[in-house]
Each structure stands twice: as C-alpha cells, then as structure tokens.
Write a structure and sequence with these properties.
Layout (H helix, E strand, L loop, with lengths): L5 H28 L14 H5 L4 H10 L3 E5 L5 E5 L2 H10 L4 E2 L2 H11 L8 H11 L5 H26 L4 E4 H18 L13 H15 L1 H4 L2 H4 L5 H9 L4 H30 L1 H5 L8 H11 L8 H32 L1 H13 L8 H5 L2 H13 L5 E6 L3 E10 L5 E7 L4 E5 H5 L2 H4 L17 H4 L23 H18 E5 L4 E4 L5 E4 L9 E6 L7
Parallel strand pairs: 2-8
Antiparallel strand pairs: 1-2, 3-5, 4-12, 5-8, 6-7, 9-12, 10-11
Helix pairs in contact: 7-8, 7-23, 8-16, 9-13, 13-15, 13-16, 16-19
The protein binds protoporphyrin IX containing FE.
Length: about 550
Amino acid sequence: MSTDNIPTQLGIAGAVAVLLFLLRRWSSRSTLRNIPGPPPQSQWTGNLKQWFARDGADFQRDVSFNYGPVAKIHGFLGRPILYVADPKALQTILVKEEQVYQETKAFFAMTYLLFGPGLLATAGEKHRKQRKLLNPVFSIKHMRHMLPIFYGVLHKVRDAITMRVSDGPQEIDMLKWMGRTALELIGQGGLGYSFDKLVEDGDNEYGRALKHLQPTLQRINVLRRLIPYVYKLGPAWFRRMVMHYFPLGQVRDAKEIVDTMQRCSSEIFASKKIALARGDEAVMKQVGEGKDIMSILMKANSMASEADRIPEEELVAQMSTFLFAATDTTSNTLARILQQLAIHPDTQQKLREEILAANAEEYMAYDDLDALPLLDGVCRETLRVFPGVTNLARTPTQDTILPLSEPVVGTDGTVMREILVPRGTEILIGIQGSNGRKERWGEDSYEWKPERWLSPLPKTVTENPVPGVYSNLMTFMAGRRACIGFKFSEMEMKVVLAVLLSNFTFELTDKPIQWNISGVRYPTVGKDSNVAQLPLKVGLYKKPTLQ
Ligand code: HEM
C-alpha cells in the first residue's frame, strides 16, 4: 500500500467517525423524542414554566401518572428531559451506575458556595470518605441515645402551645411551630446547640439566616444559573468583594446569610472542640451532653485512621448542610401530617388512642415507639403520597443505555425495552411518580390511607422493589447519595406526634390551603400569598379520667 494515501485514509476514517458520532447522537435524541409526554407549552421554554411554576402541582401530577413510568417533557428550545419512575431504570441511575449519572454542575457549585465542602457539595472519593465516617454516626444505636433530647424539646413545645390554647381553641400557624421544632431538634440532636427557648416568639441569628435562605435564593433564581461559570473566578477575596459590592440587594443578602451561617457554624465547632479536648466532664455540660451528631462525628474523626480522617473544613461544612437538609423537609412533612389528621378526624382519634394506650407522651424507648403500628402507618403514608421533594435531577456524563423493567410504547408505536440516553440529558428522578403508581400500589394509590401499612403490602410492590432506602418509597432517594438523616427524621416525626396528639386536637379552619411547588413543597393560605403557613384550629384534648 502506498504511504501517499495515508492522509486521505485518515481523513476518510475521521469523517466516518464524526458521521457515526452524529448519527448516534441524532438517533438517541430521536429516541428521546419518541418517549410519550405532554406537548411543549412554548417553543422557547418548552414545559419548564409549567413544571417549575409555584402552582405546577397539577402539571407535575399529570406527567408523573398519565404517561407511564418513563415520560418526556421539553426544556429550553425543546430539548428533551426524561422523567423516570421505572424501578429498574431507577436502580441503574442511583445505584448500579451511580458514577455515570451525576448531580448537575449547578447543584454542586451552589451547595459548595452555600455550605462549603459538606455531603451535598462533594462527589466521588471525597463524598465516599465523608459517608464512610458519617453513616455510623446516623445509626440506630446513636438514634436510641438521642430520643431523650427529642422528648425534652417536645415537652417545651407542648408547654408553649398549651399556654396559647388554655382559654379555648385557637387558630395557630402549625407550620411555624413545626419549623421551630424541627430547627431545635436538629440544633440539639445534630449540633448540640440550642437555637430557640421555644417560649417567646423570638429567634436567633443562625435560625433567622436559615429561615431567609430559601426565599432569598428563590428571588435570585435566574442569576443562580450563572454560578457554575463564575464560582471559581479569581481568588476567594476577589469573589467576596464582588458579592459585597454587587448592585442587586438580594445577592448581597445571600452573601450576608452565608457569612452568618459560616460564622455561627465555626463558633459552635470551636466550642465543641474545646469541650472535647477538656474531656467528658466538659462535654457533659454542653447542650446534647455529647450525644449529638456533631460531637459523635468529631470524636469518630479524631479516632479514625489518617486515611479515613476528613479535614476540619469538611467537618464544619456538615453543620450548615445538616441544618439545611433537616429543617424544611421535616417541618413541611409534619405540617402535612397534621393537615391530613385534621381532614381525617377518625384517624386522628384512633392514632391518639394508640399513643395514649402506649403512654408515649412522656417518654418511650426507641424500639417501642418505632413499633406503634398506626403511628408508623401515618408517617409512611404521608411520605408516600406527599413527598416533600417531588423530583431531583441527574445527568449522565457519557452516552449510555438505560434498561427498563417494562417496555415503553413510543409515540410512533415502537416498543422500547431500553433507552439510549445521550450525555448531558437532564433526567428527573420521579419520586412522586414512583411512590404513587397505580400499577404498584393499586387503584386507590393516590389516596391517603395509613391503614394500607397495617397489612402486608401488595405483591406488585414487594416483588418489583424500587431502590429507595425507606419502605419501598423513593422519598429519601437511593444509593450513595440517599438521605443520611431519614431515621433521624422518622423519629422526630414520631416524637412530635406522640406528644402533640396526647395533648391537642387539630381541626381545619375555613381558610383554603394551597401546597406550592418549590425545592421542598410548602403550604400557603390561597394561591397568591407569599407567606408559608398552615393555620389549624388547635384545642386542648381532655384526657378521659380514670374511674
Ligand atoms: C422528611 C424529611 C426529609 C426528606 C424528605 C429528605 C429527603 C432527602 C433527599 C430526597 C435527599 C437526596 C438529595 C439528592 O440526591 O440531591 C436527601 C439528602 C440528604 N439529607 Fe435528607 N431528607 C429529610 C430529612 C433529613 C434530616 C432530618 C437530615 C439530617 C439530620 C437530612 C440530611 C440529609 C443529608 C446530609 C443529605 C445529603 C446526603 C448525601 O449527599 O450523601 N435529611 N434528603
């Protein structure tokens, strides 16, 4: 063969390779186009406005339930976005090929800026190392020791609400109370720090910063999308100076909030470090008496081998991470439970009787409280039907094939048993779609029925399990990045309900409650109010006197 031909041959080979690449990309994109889903609302923004709108709950339900376990919506300029609730596909994305399907760059950049290099902001080896150290800290063994802290907080909440309703039933914003309760529970149980005396209507600096974080971020929603491009621009002092003099007040507010959270976390950390160095007696004098998550974590880190130890900066970052991840999620779920119990007074009374019969108000050991069947059913059913986080995004870092448990019929009638997904495709993990599928949970799957947990679950659920860490549900996600605090959260909810239902009754008011779409769903009175709240009529429960 003549060597003169080599450049020509290389050129042809290169052109064929590019052609094959483009063909593969085109064919995979056209596979995505063939997936059923609602038509785009706009040529420019596809279905994005409908999906992210505050009142987008009906649209999200439509996509979750009316097109099958895999559906498609449209992003910018009609770019396909996959909505996935198929069990095998979820297993592949979140467990089997977790390294391929990553959180978006924008997510990592944002969480890093807000909380530092904690669990939410790290990936790969760094994240694995943090989880290795943290998983045992969240074990049931430690949760058992934490229960007295939870009860202590709830008894204060009980006394505070009693003061407000002692003259007769009152309308009370139970979301606000659940927010204060969840913050104090993660404060004492997570950080060994008290935010709120739970008597007066006051709050502290850290609590205030945390409360304003979500609304402030909501107001700079569009600018936030630039973060991945600018967050490593220049040295840290330069970025801080730009933020300090930024012409938009909301951006300066966001910086103030982050600064406050970081300063407070560092102060709490420093005082814990001193106490740990002084020994057990000093630790016992701290809030949480050394049984809180941060104290256990710091101790575990100091005893870990050098290879497993994580730097101080990463320990401090976990504090804001826990506070952020633990408060809105738990408080909104608790508000939803109370609202459901007000809508279903018979279930409210049955649950109260179960709790009173077990004497769970003052204190109950972890395993006994965990075993109360209706209490467990009410928590699981609320987390199933009303997951606070309805969906989360993942993006494959390479072209890949997504296998399915059941075939999807394309819009052109083609039957697909797997889907070719191009690199960079946005995938929405269908938490709501998976938790509520009729094919899995039966014809009444959309209804809130805690009793369904009192008998064995249908075979359609147990024989085709989803990878979720909790109860055949996707509410706390799955795999390496699943919620680390789900047991903590479940125990919080059970102690809150044990104490509140032993003392109070909850009824609906005549105000219309709307649940809004956001990172975590939240209630308002009507669809126009900007104030997150759940007013309920709260009265004292008169316990029957013993004969
Ligand atoms: C009802 C309450 C809760 C819900 C619905 C919930 C839900 C979730 C979900 C869906 C994720 C996955 C996020 C993602 O993949 O991007 C997550 C992660 C996380 N959650 Fe929760 N959560 C709750 C309560 C808590 C509590 C009480 C804590 C702490 C005590 C906590 C700490 C975390 C942390 C640290 C992560 C990040 C885990 C990692 O990336 O390794 N969560 N949570």
